[in-house]
Amino acid sequence: MTTQEPFYKKSTTILFGLILVVYVLFMLSDILVPLAFAGLLAVLLNPLYNRLMNLKVPKVLSISIALLVAFLIVAAILYFLSSQIMQFGEMLPTLKTKFNQILTDLQRWIASSFGISFEKQLQYFKEAANSNKALISRTLSGALGVFSILFLLPVYIFLLLFYKTLILNFIYEVFSKEGPDSVAGVLKETKAAIQSYIVGLLIEAFIVAILNSAALLLLGVDYAILIGVIGAILNLIPYIGGLVAILLPVLMATVTKDGYTTQLLILGAYAIIQFIDNNILVPRIVSSKVQINALISILAVLLGGALWGVSGMFLSIPFVAVLKIVFDKIEGLKPWGKLLGDEVPSVNFTQRWKLRRRRV
Q: What confidence tens digit (pLDDT) does each residue in 266-280 have?
């Protein structure tokens, strides 16, 4: 006769297990983050790889062609941005002069309004700069981490595609008790969810880039296309990216134009674009693919950011989408799958129980 463990023992074991998993994920972030991105991109490139394999192209050559296509797309985007940035560099001396003038006017206004002298303001600025040295060093280390990811990604993607059959056979053998059909269903839905989510993000970024650039061109903002594209890329970073995307054109208009009319029009235009993005593009193009409710999405993004920074924000939604698919397939975990989903029942459990009693 088996006795069920008390709740406090079971919950304590689960809590310590979660703490251990989070600790390992945090300590091994330099290895796991590029591997996670490589996994997403490998899933995205998998249809092209399969098509080449069906055409009897050798495996190594098929993977190489898929990686080459991805590299050419990224190179084209970087070339476009770099050409725009080079044109922007020609205007830097003028922008610097204008910015210094605005800064001097701001210092005079602070001195006349609050009685803080120029020397005192400079002292406050130096103190703030010294206190933010740690933040700057973390930013630089994060930039170096991005470069390491870029070098490791092609290697990881190549190996994941090359050993795809080995990895799939391992998953089937580990979860053989669930049955091959059940495992195949989970893998198929996971692949479809990841592919749809990434493609949805790319479509969203493309549309937002067009809207940003068109709005800035109509308002006469310099380097409208460059700022619009950068804003769309930053918009992929939840919460923080949208704010930075608005600050860039406002700063450019402040430096290059007199008055504040253009800045107010930029804020209005970007507010409309954000409304379209949040209420039309994201629900229909991105969120509809992963079917996760807004509360869980926000919590996942915040927790991912706390664990792995900006990379964790990107990876959190696909990770939760995979968890939901797994939970929906396992009988004992189906309530957790419903909690993550976006389907809101019209009747709660208590009301449903009362209705059943009345019928009886």
A: 989 988 998 888 777
